[in-house]
Design goal:
four-stranded antiparallel beta sheet; 17 strands; alpha/beta; about 20% strand; eleven-stranded mixed beta sheet; about 475 residues
């Protein structure tokens, strides 16, 4: 039954396909394949290698134990769409096309179906054809690219799927077609293969046979198997452990005296870890280990409904998904490549916009980077060298609602509209308990001035006084 849903067809983007055909190069340890694995709503403290005493993650732990683990990595935002947009485009959320999951004006209006089956209408922005993605950049170096599972940058535009934004292949679901994610979320009845919506017959009639994490892993293994003789970029974006916590098999934790949803949450993480082990096993079996860079991260912090107290999902950080406190944006980051990436733990401050220039440098495609990106090349850190990442300004915003910035030990943040900036020394106070704004007013004022410069007006999230603000003539 597994085989009947692994391979059905692919969707190609003409430009990168042509580029791949003209540059028939092979991956090497110095110009490796790239596998970027992204968890969904995984908290900074959810992994055993980041101190979790409850959840079993042996495969991810092994990646950390034999590679580089970062202790101060930040996502692109505190929520899915803007964080992934920042990752894909190299820009902070003061400049990205997408700055929140929904937009108040513009965009495209569509339906949202909740986990309970409720239907609401909202507006979403989407990546436009002129928005350059990592896949577009790497394609110029002959890399074949594939996105598996969650894109979340299409808004309600079917033409903004990943295979229309730089990726050669796409297997997964889109916002614009709710049916592709099904009523059952983790046990979908339908799934896109390129532009074709295929039926997952094993899950018909709510039979819960094929879990989405397994399906996604099969799709990922299928892609790297086909492309084993060419350099590739695989972006594997799992749904786990995003709510609702749907997984039928919780045997890892059945003997625990936990609530049912707590068991399911932990099982979603461990099940994802098991499937990451399957993928890594395929990489090894194909003889690709030395020529493949593995990156693992999460799109934002743990959600408010996650068992944060019971399982220490947020590692005692303040805040949660949807907020710009540490608990909403600080995420695990692990990098691994045998015989290339050293075993080390780094406290360098890095964030999602850094990946575009970093992977461009790795693949020799730097000259194809778009202008005005906010990330920096942190590739030296992957290979045991140093680079100063800590004395620049990192910036985040939910326009008109929240904003935050970090430089060095200091972080300025506000999570309520119209409220003054708070100031924290993250090195001494990573849980953001002691607001030092009153003690260092000049530093707050400096942060505020710099943060205002980072905000570029958006037609989808206009602020009062900006030209696209509703009612302004």
């Amino acid at each position: 039954m597994k085989k009947e849903i692994i391979l059905y067809g692919v969707a190609l983007t003409t430009a990168s396909t042509a580029m791949g055909q003209t540059q028939q190069i092979k991956a090497t340890p110095d110009h490796p394949n790239i596998i970027f694995i992204l968890a969904d709503d995984l908290g900074y403290g959810d992994l055993h290698c980041y101190g979790n005493p409850y959840i079993e993650t042996p495969n991810i732990d092994k990646l950390a134990a034999t590679g580089t683990r970062f202790t101060q990595c930040y996502a692109g935002s505190g929520i899915s769409s803007p964080s992934r947009c920042s990752l894909m485009t190299g820009k902070n959320t003061g400049k990205t096309r997408i700055r929140d999951n929904q937009c108040p004006v513009g965009g495209i209006r569509g339906i949202k179906i909740s986990a309970k089956g409720d239907t609401t209408y909202n507006r979403r922005a989407n990546l436009l054809p002129q928005d350059t993605t990592i896949a577009t950049v790497l394609g110029t170096a002959g890399y074949r690219s594939c996105l598996v599972n969650k894109w979340h940058l299409d808004g309600y535009d079917p033409g903004a799927a990943p295979n229309h934004r730089g990726f050669d292949e796409f297997y997964g679901w889109t916002i614009s077609t709710p049916k592709s994610n099904g009523d059952y979320y983790y046990y979908p009845n339908y799934r896109f293969h390129g532009d074709t919506l295929i039926s997952i017959k094993a899950n018909e009639h709510d039979t819960h046979v094929r879990h989405n994490t397994e399906i996604s892993t099969d799709d990922a293994i299928g892609f790297i198997t086909r492309e084993k003789d060419h350099p590739f970029f695989l972006y594997l974006a799992y749904d786990a452990p995003h709510e609702p916590y749907h997984i039928d098999d919780t045997f890892w934790y059945d003997e625990k005296n936990w609530a049912a949803d707590t068991k399911r949450y932990a099982a979603l993480v461990t099940h994802m870890d098991y499937n990451i082990g399957r993928l890594l096993g395929a990489v090894k079996q194909l003889g690709l280990s030395d020529n493949t860079l593995i990156i693992f991260a999460s799109d934002n912090g743990a959600a408010i409904m996650a068992p944060r107290k019971e399982l220490r999902c947020g590692a005692d950080l303040r805040g949660h998904k949807g907020q710009l406190y540490e608990g909403g944006i600080k995420v695990p980051l692990i990098v691994n490549q045998p015989n290339k990436v050293p075993v080390q733990t780094l406290s360098n401050i890095v964030y999602f916009p850094d990946f575009m220039p970093t992977l461009a440098a790795l693949t020799g495609s730097t000259k194809h980077l778009p202008q005005n990106i906010d990330g920096m090349n942190i590739l030296p850190l992957f290979y045991g060298k140093q680079v100063d990442t800590d004395h620049r300004l990192l910036y985040w915003e939910f326009p008109g609602k929240q904003r935050a910035a970090r430089r060095g030990d200091w972080k300025a943040v506000t999570v309520k509209p119209g409220k003054p900036l708070e100031l924290y020394n993250i090195k001494e106070d990573e849980s953001e308990r002691y607001n030092l704004a009153g003690k260092y007013p000049k530093l707050v004022k400096k942060f505020d001035k710099e943060m205002k410069k980072e905000h570029v007006p958006s037609p989808y999230w206009p602020l009062p006084g900006e030209k696209d603000y509703p009612g302004k003539k």
